[in-house]
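PT: before anyone asks, these are the final sequences, not the draft ones from last week. 958 residues across everything. Please model them as a single complex and drop the result in this thread when it's through.
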Amino acid sequence: MSDLTSISSTALYTAFIVYLIATVFFGATIKDKRTTDMSKKGIAGTIAITLTIIGFIAQLIYFFTRWAAGGHAPVSNMFEFVTFLGMSLVLAFIIIYFIYKLSVLGLFALPIAMLIIAYASMFPTEISPLVPSLQSHWLFIHVITVSLSQGVLAVSFVAGLIYLIKTIDQSVFSKKTFGLEFILFTLILMLGFVASSVTFNFLDYHAEIQYEEPNYEKFKDETRVNIKPEEIAVYNKPAIVGPKHGVMLTEDKMKPIIHIPEWMKGKDAATKLNTVIWSILSGTIIYGIIRLVIRKRIGAWVQPFLKNVRPNLVDEIMYRSVAIGFPLFTLGGLIFAAIWAQIAWDRFWGWDPKEVWALITWFFYAAFLHLRLSRGWHGEKSAWLAVIGFAIIMFNIIVVNLVLAGLHSYA
Amino acid sequence: MDKLKCECGHVNPEGTILCESCGKPIEGNQHIDGNDKTKLLNMRYDGTARRSQTYNRTIVDKIWNFFSSVKVGVMLIVIALIASGIGTIFPQEQFIPPEAENRDPAVFYEDWYGLIGKIYYQLGFHELYSSWWYMILIALIGISLVICSIDRFVPLYRALKIQQPKRHNSFLSRQRLYSNTAVVSKEEKETLVSRLKKQRYNIVNKDGNILAEKNRFSRWGPYVNHIGLIIILIAAILRMTPFFYLDEYVWVREGEQKVIPGTNNEYYIENKRFLLEVYEEDDERYKDAMERMGEQVHKNYQTDLIIYKTVGETVVGKEPELEKVTESSIQLNAPLKIDGYTLYQSGFQENEFSKMKFKLYETADEDQNSLGEITVDLTSPDETYELENGIKIQVSQYYPDYVLEDGEPRSVSKFPRNPAFVFNVFPPDEEKGEISFVGIGKNIDATGENKYKLGIVDFEMRYASGITVRQDYTLPFFILGAAIFMIGVIQGMYWQHRRIWINPQGEGILLAAHTNKNWFGLKKDIEKAIAGTNIQMVIDQEEEKEV
Ligand code: HEM
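LR: through. Structure below.
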């Protein structure tokens, strides 16, 4: 590891810790009763935003030193890309903060950014070489713009979430309280993924299973492809699911309890499913513990802390972030993407799953804007849409990359 | 009742909801925008008469009204969105993985995904994005977009042009931002106006009634962006015609010269060399990653090529005369343009044999001393080869890509990837030859009595480059459409139309304001303008409801 690389990872680590401290200070602002006067700010708020900026600068250092070390902008694999998304969220939050001065936004935005960065760090973090298709300036222009736009749209998700927690009636159980709780549960699943990965990494868990799959050789027009079977599946977590025909190579490690379903295909399907199961297990346990401690729905527990929040302002921030993020997304996610695809793959649009999901995201936010403008979907309805919109973005990053993967697959 | 005359004297078109001039709600039409049930006025299109809300008699009206509804538009978008999502569950036809046992879609989907896959295939989701119903859906969205825009643009344009600073009280007090100050001095009013001017508001003053307005152009953003979308849709339709769009693919082997397909035999390409570079294993920067992946990582795909153009008339059956146009190279991510055609490095084929050298020796000779050598060009082997010592070797069968299937030798393609031969060796002046079968790692003597044996001594391999040839005259339309869309969407999103009305009332003023988005910004503008005066800050009547 070169000096630059170690500076880079230290800087990222620093940023993470600083965000954590900043979150605590944002938490302290909650009791401030700044309902009307925007200019008067509490000391906690000032410290919090200053720390956020310092953390962001640390993350910039991470970004540029890694760029220097690797010789290309660090947005070329899952770790780098998702980390950059976390950074974009922080940047978008800082900008929105200076427009609206709403501290409570930081209390939610920073933990989510941290969650995203932690999630990213679970992927291999070595600097990887660029395969020929990725060797284009357009890759960087495209990914950076998309990521910035997703950061801004993530702020709308944060605002939407605050709006929902603040306004949904928690006195009775309803579809809405369930929906909100489900969103929070999903966030905790991400935490579960991180927690289980960190735990087993720490324990240095390692098991290997040998695949026994046939070796295909097939022809399409003139192309012959000789696919080597994925000979050995490496498990970093105890194997709950295993491949259909597998032989345990490592002694005294847990044997798979079930086989992977027939219809799940592709490289590493079994290990991926295994990771998903572990995330759900640990996420559910964490959620259960939280519920045991607070003895009510998480939404109901957080609600009283948002007493001083004005829903109208939160709604406005949510809309504003979509208004800022949508054009950016169009530019980065569709136009720059098309330019790059035209140069690299001779077609600007190819109905690759990744492209289709970018289109879906775009259509979705267009629907959001139309419903708001022409059908008066404000407040709660809009907030639900903002949450769903972000879910689509995360789906595109996680599920499409890892499961439906097409050309752009980073994993 | 065709025209509606308002008490301010303005004559409005039928269907008007708020008078175009003074904004007074027009009786009998309030249900159209739902104003009869709310305190605040619906300002969506400034209360103008929209065709879709006014007529509903003829078929044309009904179709118009159907498509001009944003609800319908959003429904169409949502359907397209869900359908597109379903289309990504399983791979589309063109993405069927190469390792599939059978790539025929009729078999593949059921084979891999069972019943659900079969249904997926039968419903046509495997080629969703070129299916007729998906195209109709997109076309409907286009129609909806056009009609919707026209339905609103014309009246809105008119209303914003005609609007007067003097507004009816019932219009002002039913704005979201509103305040009523009983006594305001002349100076204070002047301060207010001059400060608004400083914030780049346009001020219209008519008999002391003031309209301060800014960024009206942002209202046209959506219409501009919809025009961009329409241009993109038209370009997509044009692209389906061969006249605007050419897409060909050609394999060229190293050293080979071929006509470039789609150019009417005008251009030829010669592949001088294909280059496949990989990252060095001890590259400091990427060592860790490559160690983890445990495989080579490709760095560059490149074809060095020469382009030729035919000169003069081409005569059938005669070799064309060629003139070199350029000598260049293409890489993935760096295509070459010639005369409107673009050549892309799209694929490559490794492990093809170009030549093979055999030697003949006596079966009994343990040292395998050569009796002579032949070199076979694997693209077009000669029928017979004659050695100096008079031995003739006849190629009686050639399998460029040999497999043994059900005990039968066969060639699975016409490309020399696994060449195998049946040779017939004729010793000098013999009528009858000896049959032997020679391939890679195989040397079979059918009778077991052969006197001579042939062995492979050397071979040459070469690459084939897969090159896409494109000619796309629709690109400028797509670029134009995308640019217009971006301009429109930025115009509508990053600026907001803000209006502030200041009407005298007794000794004081009524202050009301409206914007299409970013109320927070508008309130700040007003705050700045009235700071230090007695003028009441506007009340957000929407927010008031909350508390
Ligand atoms: C089904 C077809 C569509 C219809 C009927 C439609 C209709 C409309 C209407 C009526 C407006 C409001 C204009 C105004 O109030 O001044 C609008 C705004 C807009 N439309 Fe569309 N539209 C359609 C499709 C699309 C699509 C596919 C996109 C792009 C993805 C799009 C992007 C926008 C944007 C960005 C705005 C501005 C929204 C805002 O300012 O908040 N539209 N559209």
